[in-house]
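Appendix B. Raw example, untouched.
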Amino acid sequence: MTSSAEQVRAYRGIALFSYGFRPFFLLGAAWAAVTMALLIPLLSGRLTLATTFSPAQWHAHELLYGYVPAVVSGFLLTAVPNWTGRLPVVGAPLMVLVSFWGLGRVAVLTSSLIGASAAAILDLSFLAMLGIVVGREIFAGRDKRNLKVLIAILLLLSGNASFHAESIWGRSDGYGERIGIASAILLIMLIGGRIIPSFTRNWLAKRGSAILPKPFDRFDVAAMIAGGIALTAWVVAPHAAPSGWLALLAMAAHTGRLARWAGYRVLSEPLVLVLHVAYAFIPAGFGLAALSVFHPDAAPITGALHGWTAGAIGLMTLAVMTRASLGHTAQPLKATRPITAVYVTCLMAALCRIAAGFGIAREPMLYLSAANWIAAFAGFVIVYAPLLARRQP
């Protein structure tokens, strides 16, 4: 049987489509920078787009259901072959998947011309296809342990459908946005809980450290359950008191979970440290969500939203993309200065956006956050495009 590595080496087509992470990481990062660059002129009225979404809706939708699915696709199309022992999706099938992702972006961008319903169908088709591809590989490989990632894809699909439905029917309940955020956070809790202690353990073990991350046990299971219940309550009733108390419980559980991974031992390697910093925004987001319930005037819900989106999602996806791209292009697993700068600018984007949510120098902080976000993702494209677009030696 041909291994995944042998299949990739045997591929002689366009290098960009020789593995799932290559096109999706590159295009996803570019889209994250572009959407933010367009947001400011959209909000000021200097630019209009042919979409039925408002500027704020388009911005939220394209980051949650444009950027996030691209990164998830790149990660899963690379990881699933390793999990199942089956061949990776490369060449023409991968081109088709990427094309459907791009078609969704164009459809949403031109929804006022082609119709909101048609745009929704075209946009939803990508996540449906991704679910079919990943589900086929997991079931064919009899890898029941990783069915959880398929559930996460289905949650993203349902959230995207809700987002479109709310827009078409003129509702502003926000379920589509909250489902998208909750689905992404669940994925980070699931996958982050696997890779963060593993990468940390590997790095510390090579240096002979006597202190290593705690292995996965019942505490992690309890933290995942607490986080899942709290996120469900937040999606259904974000302003209700029970949601606030559940968020506080989840904050405590995931703070404890993070503390068990010995992050303080990896301060000298940004490539590992950034994973811990990104995960810290999960309990921080739960804390901000609780504050928005009990003190809505002092802590509006936008603080929790951007703690999770700009902080946990933005920084964690960059951490995963930078490391996976290095590892799968035979580069040393070490953060260079440009890579470290990408992490720092994304972290600054998150902190500035949270500060703006609290009304601290709101307008300057919004501009600073946007500028740092663009610098982070454009920086990823500049640094990694040569690696992702060329054939591996």
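End of appendix B.
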